Amino acid sequence: MAEDRAGIVDGVIRERRTVKVLADEAFPVTDVRPVVEELVDVAGWAPFHRVAARTHLEGALTSIVPWRFYLVDADGCRALRLALLARGDKSKIPRMLAAASALVQATWLPNPAKGEHMGLFEATEENMEHVAAAGAAVQNLLLAAQARGIPNYWASGGALRGADAFGWMGIPTGEILLGSLFLFPTETDGAEVSPGSHRNNRGTPSDWSRWVRLDLPDAG
Ligand SMILES: Cc1cc2nc3c(=O)[nH]c(=O)nc-3n(C[C@H](O)[C@H](O)[C@H](O)COP(=O)(O)O)c2cc1C
Fold this sequence. Notes:
alpha+beta; NADH Oxidase; 7 helices; 36% helix; binds flavin mononucleotide
């Protein structure tokens, strides 16, 4: 029984893969809201250590978890595509929005900066743990999608990370996009389908893990 469960979980983890579906014409719209809500519900069981800063709990979403998911259905994806095309966006994002059955904008919640810092956020241990927890929630969502046979893709987001896109979706500016998660239909006729570029380049566990040999100071 325990072996069956391990086999199923391991199988889904190994099966998960990046699938990018790129279309030049908009795909028909299907309603996948119920299944997206299922995925989000499962994803929320990620571990988290630090509670999100109070400033992030005062808007429409009030959970202490250090991530937020903003859900865009197929109609929304098509509308976002048109808005990006109207701005002359020539990236792959509009082509994926033409095909997607849903998009999840996954953000993480940085602590308010206490001092001067370079870049997007203050490089603190707390922020590192917020990102890590949000990443675990994202992976949960991808695995839940994979288990249901839904092709999926974790993208950096391109224009979907920008202030305009945040404004269109009502995402608070204090949040940082961790990923634009594309969910695609299984029927991809007429579209280009491509894998993740690093899929088969990760090496084996012995390339990125090793048992530790301890070299301790003398006890006494
Ligand atoms: C944080 C993050 C951001 C990513 N952003 C992009 C992206 O912008 N473009 C892209 O082609 N792949 C992106 N990927 C997907 C990786 O290319 C992909 O995971 C990798 O090639 C390994 O393939 P696999 O997901 O099939 O195992 C991203 C993955 C992660 C974890």
